[in-house]
Structures are given as C-alpha cells and as structure tokens.
Amino acid sequence: MDTTSTPGNPALEKTSGWINGFIGVLIFSGSLPATRLAVLEFDPVFLTVVRAAIAGVLAGVLLWLFRQRRPARHQWLSLLIVALGVVLGFPLLTALALQHVTSAHSIVFVGLLPLATALFGVLRGGERPRPVFWIFSVLGSALVVGFALAQGLSASPTGDLLMLAAILVCGLGYAEGAKLSRTLGGWQVICWALVLSLPLMALLSVYLAPASFGPISGPAWVCLAYVSLFSMLIGFVFWYRGLAQGGIAAVGQLQLLQPFFGLALAAGLLHEHVSLGMLAVTLGVIGCVAGAKKFAR
Question: Tens of pLDDT along 195-240?
Fold first, then answer.
C-alpha cells in the first residue's frame, strides 16, 4: 500500500503534493495550542514520551494490518533521524518552550520552518531551488526573527532558544522523512519511525507517569489525544506524502501558512492576545510563500 506518487502524470502528482501538504499544515496548526494547554497539567517530558508511545502503538497496528515489510537495512539510519527530529526532538523542545512563552508567540517561530526544511532538503534530499527562491525564504524568516527581537528576547530567552532548536531538528526530520518517503512510502515512514521509538517511549511513559491522573481535566486529555493521534501520526501521513510528491523545498513553504492558522486557534480557543505585530508578521511571511513557490524549481 504505497500511494506516495502517481507515475506518468507529473502535473497530477504535483497538485496532489500541494493538497496533501496543505492538509498536513492544517493538522499541525493545532499542535502548539494543544500542547500549550496540555503542559498546564502534564509534565512536558511525560507529555512528549506518552504522545509518542500512544502514536507508536497505533502505528504498529497499521503496519500489521496492511502487512508492511520491514525497511531495508540502509533505511534504518534515516528512520532514526526522523524519530529523533519529529518524534522526540520537536515535541520535547516545544513542550519545554511553552512553559516559558505563549502558544501565540511560539507559533510565529514556525515561520522559520520552511527555510530550515529547504536547507535540509538541499543537504539531505539533493534538491536545488533557484537563487530567487532563497531570497523569499530568507525574507520570510527574517520577518519572524525580527518580530522576536522586537518583542525582546530577554523577556524569555529560554523559551525562544528552545523554539529555535525545535525548528532546526524538525526541519531535519521533515527533509529526511520526505527523502525516505520516495522509496518507503509517506505513511510508512512515520509509522516505522514511531515503532522504532516505541520501546523507549513506552518505558519512559511508565517511569514518568504522575502518581495520580485524578486532577487532570477533560480538556487536557483532549489535547493529549490530539497531539498523539493527529500531530504525531495523521498529520505526517499527509505531510510526508506532500513533500515527496511536490518537492521538499516547494511544498515546505506551505508551513508559512501555519502561523496564520495557529494564531487563529490561539486567539479563539485559548483567548490569548494576538497583537497587530503578530498579524503583520504572519501576513508578511504568508506573502513570501507565493514568491518562494514560484521559484522553488
């Protein structure tokens, strides 16, 4: 069961890549607001490992149901990089960061993801976007960094540094997973990465579990379910397929839309203040995606 590509029809494959990528971005947009709510009641390290453990069990079931063959020996290193980047690194670093900054503030940093993904797409995926592409990509990233500096990094340097580290490891995990998706399949990549992580994540989940789950509220459980099922598994099924079909650098620019959706969720669900500056930066980076998309190849 591998529907990552549509051989013989490049135009349809490219369009499918953008559609799948857009769905993935929509799903990921709820990740930071959900994590922000969850870490109010769950320890961030426990949240990271238990969400991966839950998703890992579901991934194992999917692989068994569809009788997927084990990856080749040379593919396990790439799967380990994916696991370290998107199963462990990004969730843990963002959960820690969200103890210091609001989800609205952290979401703006997601505007750096397209640049990070494109850079690792060149290093790991062998892509070569045109020079003008980098102008638009760097411009969008500069808007994000400029906003962070204008807010005053001294207010929470720990939170901002953690978010920057999260973006780097996530970009690497995205590019590595997209490259592997071309041969292994989009949903298979994230499932095998989760299964690879499952023994350690399950062990840590038991060890780090709180003495009692009684005080945990219903909304916190809903957020845990969301980040486990959608952020950790379903979103990647669409995202890796989109990157593999439409190109890592090109489709990766859709991540510039994620701050817009995330800010809307932060304001609507968490009632966090979204300043005019945040909106201006978000609109600016969204404007950059059109230029970057045009010159991606």
Answer: 999 999 999 999 999 999 999 999 999 999 999 999 999 999 999 9
pLDDT of residue 168: 94
What are the sequence ranges of the domains in the chain? 18-294
Question: What are the C-alpha distances in Å from 187 to residues 41, 46, 232, 238?
Answer: 31, 25, 11, 8
pTM of the model: 0.85
Which token pair is 183?
Answer: 């041969």
CB neighbour list of residue 172: distance below 8 Å, 6 or more residues apart: 81, 85, 116, 120, 124
Rounded Cα distance, 129 and 290, in Å: 14
pLDDT recorded at residue 155: 61
Q: Which pLDDT tens digit goes with each residue over 124-165?
A: 878 888 888 888 888 877 887 777 667 665 567 888 889 989
Distance set, CA 28 to CA 92, 107, 223, 236 (Å): 15, 11, 13, 9
The pLDDT of residue 3? 45
